Amino acid sequence: MTFRIGVIGAGVHGTRYLRHALQDVPGMTATALCRRDARAGARLASELGVRYHREPEALIANPEVDGVIIATPPAAHFAQASAVLAAGKPLLLEKPMTACLGEAEALAGLPGADKPGVMLAQTLRWNPVILKVRDLWTRLGRVHLVRMAQRLAPTTLPWQHDPAIPSGGSVLITGVHLFDTVRFLTGQEFVSVSATVRKILNNAVEDFFLAEATLADGCAVSTEVSKYTQSRACWLEAVGEDGQLWADYHAGGVLLRSGGEEERFEVNALVPTLPAVLAAWLRSIQEGTPPKVGFKDGLATLQLADAVYQAGANGQSLTLPSDRN
Questions:
Q1: What gap in Å lies between CA 14 and CA 72, rounded to an integer?
Q2: Domain 125-270+303-319 is classified in which CATH homologous superfamily?
Q3: Which of 51, 67, 68, 95 has its CA 20 to 30 A from that of 29?
């Protein structure tokens, strides 16, 4: 039986989910969308041949929607995700999990939050370059340093320029990608962090942060997001006792150095990740297995994001609770 999805938040990113569900994921289709802009929503629904709902509650209740994708701004995530869980339907929730740590803790504690088919869309885990780095990771030996940076043009999204909307900036919107990727590659949790957090061109939310952290095994980690430059770069570096690597997960390619040898891997970073994310979500639903990225992972990234905000505000290193998760 074909699994029918509905998307709440059918803007640019939500529309990608709809198109991929309709065209690129065997066993899946799209039947409904929800968008605040009624005219744009109805027009898109007509184009795609799906039903338009003005209110999220109507989409969730639609009997022709088997599972729900939430791709709205983070301020809406808690209420909308709670409603999907209460309805007992599978949920794919875009990162960040919620707009703040308290909401993430509450959401993770709701009935059904740990069921198969309840998944967080940390899409960078499906980036071909990041997957290649994970394949090569054991060749590095014990890793003592990881650095990641993402440098982007200023956001044009209106809700990220409105101080009345609790959306977060570079830490919450983009930093969680980096935090989750470090956990994904190392299998370690963060134990302490210090940070610089600044507003450079965006007066509403931070558009720059630099966080220096330590993992449970002692590995040093540097993560940076600069969202104020008319340029783009996304890279990762890891240095281990047996070798080091550098990866460009925007333009593509991985470089591995060990001893006097150097290996280059031509990996295309531009392959869309959403079809793989949707396929992984569908497998979790159909097989009744834990999702690739669960709410426990989302909560861990929000715990670090909260610590980065606190450390940036008080200028001191912050130790994360050892009993979390």
A1: 8
A2: Dihydrodipicolinate Reductase; domain 2 (3.30.360.10)
A3: 95
